[in-house]
Amino acid sequence: MGAHAHPELPHRYTLSAPALPISPRLCRDFVRGIFAASGLPQLAEAAALCTSELVTNVHRHGKGDVRMAATIRHDRIRVTVHDDSPELPSPRRAAFDETNGRGLFLVTALSDVCGMTYDEPAEGTGKAVWFEFNVPPANTKSTV
What we know:
Blueprint: E1 11-17, H1 23-37, H2 41-61, E2 66-72, E3 76-83, H3 103-110, E4 113-118, E5 127-134
Antiparallel strand pairs: 1-2, 2-3, 3-5, 4-5
């Protein structure tokens, strides 16, 4: 039975990682495991790729450690990647022969919805970039 079938939702999983080259892989594996354990293995690879892109952005352009959260609700899963830089990432059109610059376009294309927010003043001066996947209706079970 997947986590989405439990009436005590939402569930929240968190991970902190240093902004190092290994962090995208660690965060990707973490998210892949959450989706698979939640009964959504068909979405695990797309979610892992989105996570990897956002964490790579933090490693290359962000500030401070990567803080990640995955929140599972009955109808969707949201993954949030947070860092201490207030600079919001901006999608850019990569040239055909460039190997970088497509991350946010991939996240937008693969996820159901995504966005960015600044920290609340009490949280610091950073930002969060997030994406969501809807839980397919076949996976939704009534808890009534």
